[in-house]
Amino acid sequence: MAGSLAVLLATAVAAVSHGAVPRRAGAPSLVARPLHRTVVLRAAPGGKPLVRLGRRGPLGESPVFGVVGVRGRWVEVTSEALSNGHFGWVEFGRDVALRSTAWRLRVSLARRELFVLHNGRVARTITVAIGAAASPTPSGRFAIAEKLFGSFGPPYGCCILALTAQQPRLPAGWDRSKTYYVAIHGGSGQGSAVSAGCLHASDADLRYLMRTIPVGTAVQITR
Question: What confidence tens digit (pLDDT) does each residue in 44-59 have?
Answer without folding.
Answer: 999 999 999 998 877 7
